[in-house]
Amino acid sequence: xxxxxxxxxxxxxxxxxxxLSWLPPADMPRTIFxxxxxHFFAYLGTSIVMGLAFQKSPRPTVLCALLILYAAALExxxxxxxxxxxxxxxxxxxxxxxVVGGLLLxxxxxxxxxxxxxx
Length: 119
Hints:
Strand content: under 5%
Largest sheet: none
Number of strands: 0
Oligomer: single chain
Structural class: mainly alpha
Shape: elongated
Radius of gyration: 15 Å
Order of helices and strands: HHHH
Distance between the termini: 11 Å
Helix content: over 70%
Mean pLDDT: 88
């Protein structure tokens, strides 16, 4: 069943967000897009994978709310990571990625599930 692979991918995303959030800046892999875009797209992608992994329950709004709380916890954890600092702006951009990903998935979900033969 393909949803099992999406659940594995979702767990991978959740696990990968921890070191990406808490690594010291010198050890942090960076893209040419900058930190804000990285936050946005990391959470946008995670929310889409999450929505495909959990199609029936819990509700997508609950899942997005939980992912936003996770983003807040990881951002707050940066207070204890050497060389890192917590930023409300980074959290807000991460939350925006979750919301946009959730909205995109809600609009495209029937088509995507049918295309993937998951419905």
